[in-house]
Amino acid sequence: IAYDSELDLVKISPNAQPPVCKIMNFGKLQLNEEVKKKLSSAVDSGTLSHAILLTGGTEKERKELSLLLSQALLCENSPTPCLKCNICKKIKSGIHPDVIITEGEASKQRSIKIDTIRDIRSRAYIMPNEAPFQIFIILEASGMGEEAQNALLKILEEPPATARFILASRSRDDFRQTILSRVTPFAISEDSGQAA
Predict the structure, then answer these.
(1) If you ran DSSP here, which 8-state letter would residue 19 be given?
(2) What is the DSSP annotation of 69-128?
(3) Among 72, 155, 165, 181, who pairs with 51 as Cys (CB 3.0-4.6 Å)?
(4) pLDDT of residue 30
(5) Residue 83, by phi and psi: left (phi above 0), alpha (psi -120 to 50) or beta?
């Protein structure tokens, strides 16, 4: 592939090979195959939305998938995530400085306070330490009340280029329509009754 500045176009050599699509490594996590394909394709092509919502499955599955996606987005090896490099190990251990995890309680409304979301908003504008961007994971995001969701909406509407958001919850019914309109949903189990 070569760029011709005079004609302002890209020339592709007849011998050029199409890019190889890497399959995302889901480890031992059992997921609906359609969701695996969509997530793998989005991660590989770099088209995964700045904000996604993972619904369905168990609390443990949602957390594990959130961490795997973070690893896949930041891991530099193939298959991604490799689960062996320093980046993957730091994320799994919860010590990567650019992967910030907030955890609510699924059974408790308003367990994620507005001040917690305000802190996330402030941190999102700080440059990442090691990675090209920061990933904010909000587990059991259904614990956000209306005020907290409104605070989160502000950053989802106009996110900094260096921030990604992963929300995880048992159901999309727990969110205001304005939040749902700013995230890409993925139903991680076939029985969750939601389209991926």
Answers:
(1) P
(2) HHHHHH--SSSSS-SSSHHHHHHHHT--TTEEEEE--TTSTT-B-HHHHHHHHHHHTSPP
(3) 165
(4) 80
(5) left
